[in-house]
Every structure is written in C-alpha cells, then in structure tokens.
Amino acid sequence: MPWLQLIFEADPSQITQLSDLLPELGAVAVTLEDNADQPLFEPPLGTHPLWENTRVVGLFEASADMDLVIELLKPPFNGHLPPHRTEILEDQNWEQAWMERFKPMPMGKRLWICPSWCKPPEPDAINVLLDPGLAFGTGTHPTTALCLEWLDGADLQGKTLVDYGCGSGILAVAACLLGCEKVWAVDNDPQALTSCRDNAEKNGVSHLLHVASPETFSDQFLGNANIIVANILAGPLQQLAPALSRFLEPNGHLVLSGILSVQEDAVRQAYLPEVIFAPCSQRDEWVRLDGQKIN
What we know:
Layout: E1 3-10, H1 12-24, E2 29-34, E3 54-61, H2 66-73, E4 84-89, H3 94-101, E5 105-107, E6 111-115, E7 126-130, H4 142-153, E8 160-164, H5 170-177, E9 182-186, H6 190-202, E10 209-212, E11 225-231, H7 234-239, H8 241-247, E12 248-260, H9 264-271, E13 275-277, E14 281-283, E15 286-293
Parallel strand pairs: 6-7, 8-9, 8-11, 9-10, 11-12
Antiparallel strand pairs: 1-3, 1-4, 2-3, 5-6, 12-15, 13-15, 14-15
Helix pairs in contact: 4-5
C-alpha cells in the first residue's frame, strides 16, 4: 500500500505548531529533517536545537483526503501555510532495503566489517559479523572507521583493551578477533550492552569480552588497561580525561575519536601532561587522536 507525504518547508517558529496539528489531522508519523545541510554537532545538555530551515513531513495513509487536510491547516496559520507539497511514497520492504544498502567494508589491511546476512568477500580475512540493532556503530561513520583502522594496524596480541562507550560493540569485537586476550566494553546504555553481547556471541568471542556500565566498571581496574579506545564526542571525552588516564597503564595506548577537527586542540589539552598524542588522523571533518601515557 502506498503512503502520502505532506511536506512543509518550515522555519523554527512554525515547527511546533505543524508537528502538533498533523497528527490531529490523521498523520501516522511526523518527521523533522534538515532542509539546508546545516550540521548540529554536540548541542548543550538538555537542549534540543532545530535547523533554521526545517522540513516537516507528515505521513498519511493513501486514503487520506489531502486537500481537506491542507484546508484544515490554514486557519491556525491565518490562511498562509508555509511552502508545501504532497508526494506519493511507494511501500516497500524497508528492512530488506536497508539490508541491501549495508555491504561488507574493508577496514585497513586485515579487517572487514560484514553484515551477518552477507558472505564475507575474503573468507581468510578477519571478518567482524555485525548486526547493529539499536546501538550506534556499523563502521560506516568516519569516527568508527578511524578507530577500526587503528586497531587493524596495532599489535593487540595478549593485550587488555577497554572500549569506553562501546555502542554496538564493533570496536570491542574487532579487538577480540585481532588478538586481544581480554576486552571490556563499557556503556551507559543498556541497549548498547545487549547489542554488544549479541555481536560478541555471533563472532564467537563471548569468552573474551566483558560488558559493564560505567558504575560497575570499578576502581579495581585502575592502571590495568594496555589500550583504551573511546569513540564518543569531544565534550564527554574532555570530561572523562581524568578517569580514562587512571584506567590506562604506564606506556599504555589511548585512542580517541568522535572529535571534529576544530575540537582537536581542546581534547589534546584535557589529557596533558599524562598522555602525549601523535599527529591526528583525519577523515572528512572528523579526527582520531592516538597517544601514549607517559610514566
């Protein structure tokens, strides 16, 4: 069954009213989309900023009378609706469409990220079988790819690694497959920890991977990590600097991502003098910092 979309090109003053009225007039879903390619990076805690030019999309069943919906919307706007149009959205198997777009991806020289429903293109490579589920981390984002490439090039044999902010567990699972003896996956989202456990089981590394919330990842671990990888955001990385430095052993390696190039210096400064970083690696507007804790 096809669907109908009523699409408005709205400014911020009109968004709330449209979002409230569309469901009352039969919309089964309302979506807000950026209409001008304006990024919103790391908004302040507790804030919900909107784009200056926002597309408000109401999704209606095919039988809906869109002419009537538009007429009923006019009075609250004094007869002057924002620019709008109606489009037909053909129905499809959305899960199948998503699966077709998510393809195996090489990460460095040895490592591949493969959806579990695909045959690995290089069976002899190190293949991470991944079903992202409800947690962040498929390898498609530059920040994740930068971390995977570092892991691929590192000597992880026998090492203890902490993936702080593990999301789907993609970095933690990759570390296990690349030779780590023990990996801790830490996240404050219970869905992320569930996804991480599932992906560890799919890859046969459950015996190497341990999941924990930040609260249960206790002080008994201080100074025991050979490597810490944290792919979060610049603000949290700066706040976590004292804790992550304490978890890391002397001469241990720290890998940080989720950092915009304009935020690089601030993150570096947060870890000095305990950690000395190499020149950053960059992909698009994102950078990865990797360094070593001094004695």
